[in-house]
TrEMBL record:
Ranges for domain Mop: 291-357
Cellular compartments per GO CC: membrane
Protein name (database record): Molybdate transport system ATP-binding protein
Lineage, broadest ranks: Bacteria, Pseudomonadati, Pseudomonadota, Alphaproteobacteria, Rhodobacterales
Gene3D superfamilies reported in the protein's UniProt record: 2.40.50.100, P-loop containing nucleotide triphosphate hydrolases
Species this chain originates from: Ruegeria halocynthiae
Amino acid sequence: MSLSIRLQHQLSDLALDLDFDAPSGVTVLFGRSGSGKTTVVNAVAGLLRPAAGRVAVDDWVLFDTGQGIWLPPHRRRLGYIFQEGRLFPHLTVRQNLNYGRWFAPRGARRESPDRVIEMLGIGHLLDRRPAMLSGGEKQRVAIGRALLASPRLILADEPLAALDDARKAEILPYFERLRDEVSVPILYVTHSAAEVARLATSVVALQAGRVVRHGPASEVLADPSVAPAGVRAVGAVLQVRVAAHHDDGLSELEAGGERLFLPRIPHRIGDELRIRIPAQEVILSSRRPEGLSALNVLSGQVDTIRAGEGPGAIVSVRTPAGMVLARVTRRSVAALGLRQGSPCYAVIKTVALAPQDVGGRVVAP
């Protein structure tokens, strides 16, 4: 399924004017607060009526101002996942899930309740009420309720923002399964680079109500001008395969014939993954370094050097494993004599590869 969104609308402090198409999978709306992410979601949901525009999932048109089509929210067949689970407190988990099924239209393709419960790992929670659930468990139930409504599109508006790091780590794999195993497009709002790297099939970066970048996560996260946290969010996204698990607590990954080591991950040998390497965790050398504690040294060539307004620069290094980015000073660029095409080695500390930056099965953009 493909998603097509065209919107024009003037709010008091935001002029929304955007147009993009996205493939099936997870389309991430990415940008700073006030860039228009939630406004787009509200327009798609029917909570905001834009001045002009069109939204369609394949041939299912939610609205088209040019043709006078406007489906009310309750007829749009959307599953909405909020920052908080928003479960009915007086109902059990089972009853909350059945509430979603109650809204599924007759004749619609229905997800199997048993399959959804298994996929989300909530079988042991069915008789509990929301007050007895953790934040992560509530979100899993909310995902299940949205799925069982047989939606044609799922909206997820910063669904992990209210969770601590432990709960986020718990929930992210379920969104990865949702992306990989359910044939429903997902419009996902976040300002987290780690979530983008792990989940996105396609990324739409917004600034002041306009699309400034649209493409794979590896391209968007390499551009410091579009990341909500600026250069701190810049990083590389590599596709890797789990090659081995070692007795000293490290996992070995393979990418383009290169080897990378990181603290042990709960994935099987042969699994394909995405990993995000923050640019600030990479150092550069003009010759192969020796006598370092770092295990990950990738050889390559400088692709681009992007100087910032301050003393820093982002250097892109093309390696067999993929494009790696390093955040260094302009003084270091000059001292190393770096320029486009010059040989370079990217050094990555093993412990710098955090668990939240390691994603599940790769989905091609």
